[in-house]
């Protein structure tokens, strides 16, 4: 914006002159000059719409120019104005309404009324001045529809009714719609969406039909030359046979927002509404078929999206691609379209192939994130279709068979059937897996399986993912973890190795760090998503199904062995994050069947990893290790928990008996000691009554050793005092809870008893002193008057 770098001369300082110049040009008698004025006004709105007014907080800089903008636009909507000037003015109208400058709905009415007046030109019989080019009528009508579409999109987003619009922290979608973090600073403007929707609602019935008619025209004009014979002989809704070629560019420039608006309208209830009469749609050629049925409406929008996304023109703007994806997501957000998509399974597979191609050819993170959102809608449609098939099959089978047997039979309706064969090109699961693999390989190239019999040795390195890359990896993993639900037991076993390979690969690549790096990687988005995926697979219903259990267990054991092996595959410069390794093992131990984790060749290395973490120099790793151990110790299956208790509980007790556990200088060190105490205390509740005295013999001395004498307590730091109070409270709780064992223990050791009694007396005396001080430290205070007088009458006596 700066004109001269040597001076602080910014364009925003000349905004009033700029608006005045645009106003003068837009209201001149020269059409070329009017077009340039409107174009300049459009750019001013785009550039300065969100600039705050420095002298009036909560207001925007362009608010003061609302009258000029309305006055500049009004002449362009007069009957004698050429069509191309009116078309340009429509775009300025939509940009102004969608910019959010006007806080009050009444401030928008003038510009809104201009757009309303333009609707008359859409109806059949409207007089249009044809000067030199008949296609200008098409340009004008499409510009009107495009402007209304952009306003409707802004209104739906503002009202929270646009399911396909996500905040991807990227370039805004068409119409410059973006979620602004500073929007809450502008008064009560957050209610503008609902108010703006009220402005659009009266025109929506006719607008929706015009949008669908325009999209039908665009679809027909997009057909390859060999299908020219199928084009209507009388032209379309907004073009004639004579203007067919000259109208194509106008449709190409207008269809994205019209498509998105039509999808939003259908999602908001358009699929449920009956088609209205096409009497108001110009040119009656086939226009009545625009909304014949739900299926027709779906296939029209779906086909336009697919054609646009399949185009070999990689130079297609990112905004247009995003609009198509948003329209697809919105379209599939309704139940009926998802049913139609799954009625012909090849449609879903073809859509996945298109999404796969987009991942390959588009580097934009916003496009790739939107691709994954659309993919989730496809999977949702497939899951609903599968559930419907199963319910129908069970209903047929239950009268003749037992319900449990029927439930097992319907699982075979999933992909893979009884053989488990997943056929590429015919399998939706395979197509989804291809998209996920492509995305993961683009983000983590090391996951790409290397060709050839002898793998090339890669140099060890560390990857640093951006926030967007982490979200993309997490999206791919969340899709993959749901795929077994779409398969039969045998089919799920067939795809499980691929999912486990990719998931453990993500853990390896995203949690590898320098050996000198103390950063904990376990909280990174890709790592948490991978761990969640492992948990989902370990608890899947097919893990316990007799038809797939044995193979499933073997594959889970293989994945666990891979995780364990990751700690050994580092180099002199890199290593796997200890906490990630720990949590990866814990996922299997806590959630996988006992048969998976109790194999000696896996159990011992797992226990050894916990031992190493307890000896780590990183106190955060030690703290998380103790917390995880407490969960494992409480595992409902004793065959899983007992080996960990036998091997690791003594190390916790050893730590608590050491001076290190009581020499505290930070919150983390205090937390480690308290968590260790709580873990040992958990073992008391798990122990059999006859062995409980032995556990108390270990815990009570630990708690007593944490007590500090009264004289030393005054000089101790805050962490030591907290540990002292916590230990005393624990001892006061254990005494009544286990009276016989506690009494026997105290009678055996006079030193423990005297130290505990001294701590109790000191605590009671401190509480007594505190009560006395609180009662004497409250002198009677005169109440301050609520109304302060100018003259002081406090010293006045009668």
Automatic annotation (TrEMBL):
BP terms from Gene Ontology? endocytosis; intracellular protein localization; retrograde transport, endosome to Golgi
Q: Which domain of life is it from?
A: Eukaryota
Name assigned to this protein: HEAT repeat-containing protein 5B
Q: Which PANTHER family match?
A: HEAT REPEAT-CONTAINING PROTEIN 5B, HYPOTHETICAL HEAT DOMAIN-CONTAINING
The organism of origin for this protein: Cryptotermes secundus
Q: Which Pfam families match?
A: HEAT_HEATR5A, Laa1_Sip1_HTR5
Write down any Gene Ontology CC term: cytosol
Which InterPro entries does this chain map to?
A: ARM-type_fold, Laa1/Sip1/HEATR5, Laa1/Sip1/HEATR5-like_HEAT
């Amino acid at each position: 914006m700066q004109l001269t770098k040597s001076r602080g001369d910014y364009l925003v300082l000349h905004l009033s002159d700029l608006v005045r110049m645009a106003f003068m040009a837009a209201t001149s008698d020269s059409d070329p000059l009017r077009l340039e004025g409107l174009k300049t006004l459009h750019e001013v709105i785009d550039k300065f719409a969100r600039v705050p007014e420095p002298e009036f907080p909560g207001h925007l800089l362009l608010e003061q120019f609302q009258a000029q903008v309305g006055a500049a636009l009004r002449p362009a909507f007069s009957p004698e104005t050429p069509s191309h000037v009116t078309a340009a003015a429509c775009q300025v109208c939509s940009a102004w309404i969608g910019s959010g400058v006007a806080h009050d709905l009444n401030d928008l009415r003038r510009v809104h009324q201009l757009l309303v007046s333009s609707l008359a030109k859409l109806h059949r019989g409207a007089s249009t001045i044809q000067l030199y080019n008949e296609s200008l009528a098409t340009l004008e009508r499409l510009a009107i529809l495009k402007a209304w579409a952009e306003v409707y999109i802004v209104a739906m987003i503002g009202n929270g009714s646009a399911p396909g619009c996500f905040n991807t922290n990227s370039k805004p979608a068409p119409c410059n719609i973006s979620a602004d973090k500073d929007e809450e600073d502008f008064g009560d403007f957050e209610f503008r969406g609902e108010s703006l929707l009220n402005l659009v609602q009266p025109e929506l019935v006719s607008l929706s039909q015009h949008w669908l008619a325009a999209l039908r025209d665009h679809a027909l004009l997009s057909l390859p030359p060999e299908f020219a014979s199928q084009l209507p002989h009388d032209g379309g809704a907004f073009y004639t046979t004579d203007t067919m070629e000259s109208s194509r560019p106008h449709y190409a420039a207008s269809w994205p927002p019209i498509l998105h608006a039509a999808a939003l309208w259908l999602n908001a209830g358009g699929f449920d509404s009956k088609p209205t009469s096409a009497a108001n749609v110009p040119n009656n050629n086939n226009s009545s078929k625009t909304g014949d049925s739900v299926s027709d409406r779906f296939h029209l929008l779906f086909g336009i999206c697919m054609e646009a996304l399949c185009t070999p023109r990689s130079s297609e703007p990112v905004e247009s691609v995003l609009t198509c994806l948003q329209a697809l997501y919105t379209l599939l957000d309704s139940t009926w379209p998802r049913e139609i998509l799954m009625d012909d399974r090849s449609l879903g597979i073809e859509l996945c192939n298109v999404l796969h191609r987009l991942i390959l050819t588009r580097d934009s993170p916003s496009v790739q994130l939107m691709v994954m959102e659309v993919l989730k809608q496809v999977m949702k449609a497939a899951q609903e279709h599968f559930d419907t098939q199963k319910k129908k099959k069970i209903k047929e089978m239950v009268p003749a068979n037992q319900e449990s047997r029927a439930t097992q039979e319907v699982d075979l309706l999933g992909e893979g059937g009884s053989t488990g064969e997943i056929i590429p090109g015919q399998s939706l699961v395979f197509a989804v897996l291809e998209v996920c693999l492509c995305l993961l390989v683009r983000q983590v190239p090391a996951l790409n399986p290397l060709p050839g019999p002898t793998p090339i040795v890669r140099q060890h390195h560390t990857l640093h993912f951006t926030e967007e890359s982490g979200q993309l990896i997490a999206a791919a993993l969340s899709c993959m973890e749901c795929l077994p639900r779409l398969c039969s037991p045998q089919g799920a076993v067939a795809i499980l190795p691929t999912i486990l390979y990719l998931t453990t690969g993500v853990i390896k690549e995203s949690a590898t760090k320098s050996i000198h790096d103390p950063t904990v990687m376990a909280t990174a988005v890709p790592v948490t998503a991978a761990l969640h995926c492992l948990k989902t697979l370990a608890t899947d219903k097919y893990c316990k199904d007799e038809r797939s259990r044995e193979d499933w267990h073997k594959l889970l054991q293989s994945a666990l062995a891979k995780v364990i092996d990751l700690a050994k595959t580092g180099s002199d410069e890199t290593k796997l994050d200890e906490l990630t390794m720990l949590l990866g093992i814990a996922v299997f131990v806590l959630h996988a069947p006992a048969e998976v984790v109790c194999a000696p060749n896996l159990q011992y290395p797992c226990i050894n990893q916990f031992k190493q973490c307890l000896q780590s120099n990183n106190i955060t790793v030690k703290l998380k290790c103790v917390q995880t151990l407490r969960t494992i110790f409480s595992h409902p299956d004793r065959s899983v928990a007992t080996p960990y208790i036998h091997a690791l509980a003594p190390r916790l007790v050893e730590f608590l008996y050491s001076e290190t556990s009581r020499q505290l200088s930070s919150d983390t060190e205090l937390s480690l000691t308290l968590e260790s105490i709580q873990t040992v205390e958990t073992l008391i509740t798990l122990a059999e009554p006859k062995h409980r005295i032995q556990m108390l013999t270990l815990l009570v001395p630990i708690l007593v050793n944490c007590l500090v004498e009264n004289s030393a307590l005054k000089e101790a730091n805050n962490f030591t005092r907290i540990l002292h109070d916590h230990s005393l409270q624990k001892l006061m709780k254990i005494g009544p809870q286990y009276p016989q064992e506690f009494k026997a223990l105290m009678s055996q050791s006079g030193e423990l008893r005297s130290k505990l009694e001294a701590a109790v007396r000191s605590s009671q005396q401190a509480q007594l002193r505190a009560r006395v001080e609180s009662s004497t430290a409250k002198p009677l205070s005169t109440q301050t008057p609520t109304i302060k007088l100018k003259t002081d009458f406090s010293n006045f006596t009668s």
